[in-house]
Amino acid sequence: MGADSKQVTLSQYVYNFTLDFRKKEVAGVKLLQFTLHCGIIIMIQFGTVYMASLGLSLQEIAILNAVLPMISFLLMPASGALVDKLGKPKLSTAIVLFLTASAHLSLLWVPVREASESPSTGARFDSTFISYSIIQGLAGFFLPLMIMCTDQVTMAVSVRHKSEFSFQKFYGMISRSVAPLFVGVVMDWMSQGKARADFSVAFYQFAASQIAVIFILGFLDIPDKKPHQKTQGASAASLFRNPAVFVFLVIMFIGGIYKSFSDSFCMLYFKELGASNSFFGLRGSVAGVSGIVFTFLAGFIIQKVGCATIFAMAMILHGVRLLVFSAFQNPYQILPIEALEGPYLVMFMVTMTTYCGQIAPASLVGSLQGMVWGLFLGLGRASGSLIGGVLISYMGNIAAFRVLGLVGISVGVVYYVLYNSWLKHVEPNNDQRKENNNKSK
Question: CA 382, CA 387: separation in Å to the nearest integer?
């Protein structure tokens, strides 16, 4: 999508942000995003490390991360369509939040495998592996569904009160910069004198944040949506057959590969380099500060350069980040590059939700978002774990980082050229969605 025709200067954009801060109508979604991301970032930072602490081998972690996300890929599109069909966003979101909290909290009851029982190759199908697989399968499905539902709620409130979606996400980024450092320090303190790290505070904090969001939802003014009738040109098949939409979905899939590789193998690489839990917390805070800046600027940058340019830039920065990883052996030397998380991941995800709303008619926004999240955190995540595991097994960390780094840069450049030379001319317009939105007011 090209830049918005209604351009504003940076000073006007900042002024709009200050006005938005004083809007009581959107104060609830600001608090929702802040509370929600206090928990999400914890699972991102410590999820893979927790798997290793249970005694799961690198091969087992790769297998689980490759297989389990397929559940999201298979179920997310239907789940998104079901949320649209029910037309009760508050109820749907509250149920998903409760199930997400319950599933993740249950991971604390997975038995720890003794070091002598860990397999050198392959997987050991014991109680640890099987119980973790079942519980994480549920948790891994509910997490992206929860993000999708809360983003839809936030977008609905933002549109209704003429506010920027990125302004609300900004407050989630603030919590992402604070929560990991706090939880990492507490974990190190609670783990003193123990044979293994104590991860309980991370899971309790995650569950508490999800339950708190349920209470916040109760105070939001979100009317139920009337089920949309199927209209000419609004079929999912016709939307997904559009070349611009198809390539967009491919980019979401590739973006999921790189996010999965980063969440899994880059975190384990830091651990191999001797990083402590406090380092992971500091790393999360550095990325969080970057996320704050670029989430704040997301709406302005989208207006100036368009969504496609942001997607291309994100892939290029993914590649640059991995190339930097391959050049250093000290985790603290790598730390500054984590500031790139703002543009390559956080702004990527904000733009992803925004772009779905731009190209899909109102009756298909949930379906498109379900497909996007299924590809991004489902098939993409599974493929990233599989590809990453194979590359690292045969090439080692450094070579794998370099290969994926060069591929990421190439994908970004090719997409940018392809979009500007062809795809933007066949991109779906938003006339139908605007018409539906006007009717719903």
Answer: 9
Residue 422 DSSP symbol: T
C-alpha span between 93 and 77 (Å, rounded): 16
Return the amino acid letter for 303: Q
DSSP 284: H
Identify which of 183, 59, 51 has the alpha carbon closest to the alpha carbon of residue 124.
Answer: 59
Phi and psi for 230 in degrees, rounded to 5?
-70, 125
Burial 49-85 (b: 16+ CB within 10 A, else e): bbbbbbbbbbbbbbbbbbebbbbbbebbbebbbebbe
- CA–CA dist 300, 166 (Å, integer): 9
Report, as an integer, the average pLDDT of 286-307: 88
- Torsion of the alpha carbons at 384, 388, 391 and 393, rounded to the nearest 10: -140
H-only helix segments in 54-112: 58-67, 69-86, 89-106
CA 360 to chain centre: 20
Q: What average pLDDT does the structure give for the chain?
A: 84
Q: For residue range 193-236, list pLDDT tens digits in order.
A: 787 788 898 999 999 999 999 999 998 887 776 655 544 344 66
b vs e for 282-295, b when ≥16 Cβ sit within 10 Å of the residue's Cβ? Answer: bbbbbbbbbbbbbb
pTM over 0.70: yes
Radius of gyration of the chain (CA): 21
Question: SS3 of 295, please?
Answer: helix
Q: Among residues of the chain, what percentage have pLDDT more than 70?
A: 90
Q: What single letter denotes the amino acid at residue 193?
A: G
CA 102 to chain centre: 20
Please, which pLDDT band fits residue 440 given cuts at 50, 70 and 90? very low
State how far the Cα of 258 lies from the Cα of 264, in Å rounded to an integer: 10
How many Å apart are CA 60 and CA 439, to the nearest integer? 52
Which domains occur in the chain, in start order? 21-440 (1.20.1250.20)
Closest listed residue to residue 98, CA positions, set 215, 13, 253, 259: 215
Q: Coil, helix or strand for 81?
A: helix
Helices 127-160 and 27-53: angle between axes, nearest 10 degrees: 160
Q: Find out whether 197 and 308 touch, Cβ atoms under 8 Å.
A: no
DSSP string, 238-276: HHHHSHHHHHHHHHHHHHHHHHHHIIIIIHHHHHHTT--
Token pair in block for residue 152: 């839809």
pLDDT at 192 over 80: yes
